[in-house]
From TrEMBL:
The organism of origin for this protein: Mollisia scopiformis (Conifer needle endophyte fungus)
Region of interest: Disordered: 113-135
One Pfam short name: Thioredoxin
UniProt KW Disulfide bond keyword: yes
CDD domains: TRX_family
GO molecular function, a single term: protein-disulfide reductase activity
Residue span(s) of domain PITH: 130-326
Name of this chain's protein: DUF1000-domain-containing protein
Keyword Zinc-finger applies: no
Lineage top rank: taxon: Eukaryota
Every Thioredoxin domain range: 1-110
Gene Ontology cellular component terms for the protein in this record: cytoplasm
UniProt record similarity statement: Belongs to the thioredoxin family.
């Protein structure tokens, strides 16, 4: 796969990019710097995932070859990551701290995507459709889900597939009834009863800090058969496969959550902090929606987001977790 990262060869080239791209993520590095080499694959991975033409550009600046740029921006330690938004410095991270780098970049990417997704009536402020900041030091790691391995039991086939749940786009349910009706059904509803079972494998070993579930049932009008939001959610980490419904009722969940009306914010999202010590080395999660909050027969889920920290890659060799220790 061709790299999307731009190598900066002059101050003029760099300043041109600051004008043409809304966000510019800059890696100030040096050939002799050990921590720079260690974090380089993570920077490249973020570049592949998040680069957007004229919106988010990832660039590398060799401080020994581009002394004028390094001097202009006061670079004194390597690596230093600077994130520019509309030409101005938005964030500065010194040292090889992958967790912080990922969290900051993904937050800005979500804002940029939110402000660019014109079909969804995003506000001009550039904020993404979800409310609130991510937990300090943690990032959105939904992209670590192994999409091909996703499974969902008891879902009604008239609605979206399991993949819509991890789509970062603003749910049509937030656009009002008419807008939602004109689009494909980008949510999931249970079929024969209110229970849903989901298996979510990951590409790497994760530390999972928080889960966000978005559920946007329409208001009851003529059709009183509206679906419910989830009420009881049971979570099982590191299962080799999806559980059966009867099997799940016999196995104690690692964490069981009961949601009530006050847990859902205005975007229809409930934020669920996990018992972090129990979710430190997670390769998969099973979600069991036991029941819904109401008297109906169906449960609806629009989106699921996973927040935490990535660890080792499962396939492409070891990706060590690194801090900002000097040297190699």
């Amino acid at each position: 796969m061709m790299s999307k990262t731009v190598i900066i060869n002059s101050l003029g080239q760099f300043e041109g990019l600051l004008k043409s791209s809304r966000i510019v993520v800059t890696d100030f590095h040096a050939v002799w710097c050990g921590p720079c080499k260690t974090i380089a694959p993570i920077f490249e991975q973020l570049s592949q995932q998040l680069s957007r033409p004229n919106l988010i550009t990832f660039v590398k600046v060799d401080v020994d070859q581009q002394k004028e740029i390094a001097s202009k921006y006061g670079i004194t330690a390597m690596p230093t990551f600077m994130i520019f938004k509309q030409g101005k410095v938005e964030e500065k991270i010194q040292g090889a701290d992958p967790r912080k780098l990922q969290a900051v970049i993904k937050k800005l990417a979500a804002e940029a995507d939110g402000s660019s997704s014109s079909g969804f009536g995003a506000s001009g402020s550039g904020s993404s459709w979800r409310k609130g900041d991510l937990p300090r030091g943690y990032g959105d790691i939904t992209d670590q889900i192994e999409v091909k391995g996703l499974e969902l039991l008891n879902a009604d086939s008239e609605f979206g597939s399991v993949r819509v749940l991890i789509d970062g786009a603003k749910p049509t349910g937030l656009s009002g009834g008419k807008a939602a009706a004109s689009k494909e059904k980008d949510w999931v509803e249970s079929d024969t009863d209110e229970q849903l079972m989901m298996f979510m494998p990951f590409q790497s070993t994760l530390k999972v800090h928080t889960i966000q579930i978005t559920s946007l049932p329409p208001k009851a009008e003529e059709d009183d058969e509206v679906p419910m939001r989830p009420k009881t959610v049971q979570i099982y980490p590191n299962r080799a496969h999806i559980l059966g419904f009867e099997e799940a009722e016999d196995i104690p969940a690692t964490q069981s959550i009961t949601l009530s009306e006050k847990d859902w914010d205005e975007t229809g999202t409930a934020t669920i902090p996990l018992r972090f010590v129990k979710f430190q080395n997670v390769t998969s999660l099973v979600f069991f929606i036991v029941d819904g909050d109401g008297e109906g027969e169906r449960v609806r889920i629009d989106r699921i987001r996973i927040i935490g920290e990535t660890g080792e890659k499962r396939e492409m060799g070891k990706l060590e977790k690194i801090g900002d220790e000097p040297g190699e």
